[in-house]
Amino acid sequence: MVSEKYLNKVFLASDVYAACVQHALTTERQEIMGLLIGEVDEDTYESHITACVILHRSDKQPDRVEISPEQLCTASMHAEQLAKKLDRPIRVLGWYHSHPHITVWPSHVDVRTQWMYQRMDPLFVGLIFSVFQNDTQNRSNQLQITCFQASERISEPERREVELVIKPLPFHKYNLEGIANLPRILIQEEVDCHTIKDSDIQDELANLHNDSFQTLAIVDIVSKVSKPLCEDLEDRRKALKVRIEALKRLKESFTST
């Protein structure tokens, strides 16, 4: 039986939001997933998400994602390391995944998965990023986000929406490293996927054919993820450099008077 404790509000750091969105936009064919790290105020039942862990998918599906116990353990170890580094009680407190081309609302499977996590931690929370939703009127893609928990019912758990607040914060090094590591994770997924598929194939032509598809997939990641990511980070670097120079001039104007 899950405790009747529910979150009142979730505060999501803006750099974590950027990392999750970047991850969600890497593919419009399968769902992606990750875990959320931060602190929970047990007095106010408010969750403060300050970091995320991008998970390696062993099985790519267009309509579902699963988190293995090994991945949960790895994320917990990452949270412990971050807690020691920051000297704060940081732990795994939620999960996120994407809904490409479909509504932002959690499915029955999502709600049941969330309910399972809440059996271990009543204040565990879920985020869903709906991406690649076409707005025909404005000819643009929409991005939506929902924050939810599961509430107990007699027949089956139901969705319970939680207020979400995005806190404007500068990029922290550990979240920037997570974004920079994203292409490596995606490439490793492709390598592992083709390695499993090709393990029992003895035909050289078939192996060559599959290797070609793996190469195409990796090139696609480089062109659609790595290159735009590098350009975005370079633009951020230039903007920060301009900001630093402006602040230096402002400091000089104050000291000269």
Could you tell me the number of beta strands?
A: 8
The fraction of residues in strands falls at 25-35%
State the name of the first-level CATH class of the largest domain: Alpha Beta
Note the total helix count: 6
As laid out across the biggest beta sheet, the strand order is 7-6-5-4-2-3-1-8
| SSE topology string | EHEEHEHEEEEHHH
Structural class: alpha/beta
Measure the end-to-end span: 67 Å
CATH architecture of the largest domain: 3-Layer(aba) Sandwich
Please describe the biggest sheet, giving its number of strands, its sense, and whether it closes into a barrel.
8 strands, mixed
Give the integer mean of the pLDDT values: 85
Describe it.
The protein has two domains: 9-173, Cytidine Deaminase, domain 2; 181-256. It has helices at 14-24, 69-86, 108-120, 173-180, 182-198, 204-256, and strands at residues 9-13, 33-41, 46-54, 91-100, 125-135, 140-151, 158-161, 163-167. The protein has an eight-stranded mixed beta sheet with strand order 7-6-5-4-2-3-1-8. It has six helices and eight strands. Helix 1 (14-24) runs parallel beside helix 4 (173-180) and helix 5 runs antiparallel to helix 6 (204-256). The model has no long low-confidence stretch (mean pLDDT 85). By secondary structure, it is of the alpha/beta class.
Mind sketching the topology for me?
Elements: E1 9-13, H1 14-24, E2 33-41, E3 46-54, H2 69-86, E4 91-100, H3 108-120, E5 125-135, E6 140-151, E7 158-161, E8 163-167, H4 173-180, H5 182-198, H6 204-256
Parallel strand pairs: 1-3, 1-8, 4-5
Antiparallel strand pairs: 2-3, 2-4, 5-6, 6-7
Helix pairs in contact: 1-4, 5-6
